[in-house]
Design a protein that fits this description.
- The protein is mainly alpha-helical.
- It folds into two domains: 56 residues, no CATH class; 106 residues, 3 helical TM bundles of succinate and fumarate reductases (Up-down Bundle).
- It contains nine helices and no strands.
- The N and C termini lie far apart (74 Å).
- 6% of the residues are buried.
- One of its GO terms (molecular function) is heme binding.
């Protein structure tokens, strides 16, 4: 509210400068005219405070365009504030820390359970990273409302297909660790 009051007061400053110029006509501001300016300014401030100003009118056409351009960002901020992002961030850190243990475990111990856990966590990690990229660079305000929906649908499809492929590799093939070892062995033969 104080910010809006200051903005309304500053909108009245041109009127104050007219009062000063009209009373002076180029000379130094005298004691009498300065008192009039202060009275006018204080009455302007008190009128703005009494009126309970809640919104500003645009100063000019450019400020109106800027205000309209900022509306989608404000809506996006309001929409993103509804979720619990702290828990998601903590889960991302737990998944990233789990790779420290799982990656050597998958390579050293060929186990279906370790391969399945590694596959699921790998897909989750990649999905969250790509989702953040889409949210940052394919905002509806920038690229339109359709492209982000297409990208999110493609991301979910890619995540499902990747998880299915890794789980098939873990259960029906050599496993994720075995596949990595075979891939590394290609250059040695």
């Amino acid at each position: 509210m104080a910010y809006l009051t200051r903005c309304q007061v500053f909108r009245g400053l041109p009127a104050i400068s007219k009062i000063i110029n009209a009373s002076n006509s180029g000379a130094l501001v005298g004691q009498r005219s300065l008192q009039n300016v202060v009275k006018s300014y204080s009455s302007l401030v008190s009128n703005v405070r009494k009126s309970g100003v809640t919104a500003l009118r645009p100063f000019n056409q450019n400020s109106q365009k800027i205000g309209q351009a900022l509306v989608p960002f404000a809506n996006q901020l309001r929409a993103s504030s509804t979720g619990d992002h702290v828990k998601l961030w903590q889960m991302e850190r737990v998944v990233a820390a789990a790779f420290i243990v799982l990656l050597p475990g998958v390579l050293l111990v060929q186990n279906v359970i370790l391969d399945g856990a590694f596959a699921a966590l790998l897909v989750m990690h990649a999905h969250w990273g790509l989702e953040a990229i889409i949210l940052d660079y394919a905002r509806p305000a920038v690229v339109g409302p359709v492209l982000p929906k297409i990208l999110f649908a493609a991301l979910y499809a890619m995540s499902v297909v990747t998880l299915a492929g890794l789980l098939a590799l873990a259960y029906n093939g050599p496993g994720v660790g075995g596949a990595v070892k075979k891939f590394w062995a290609i250059g040695n033969k």
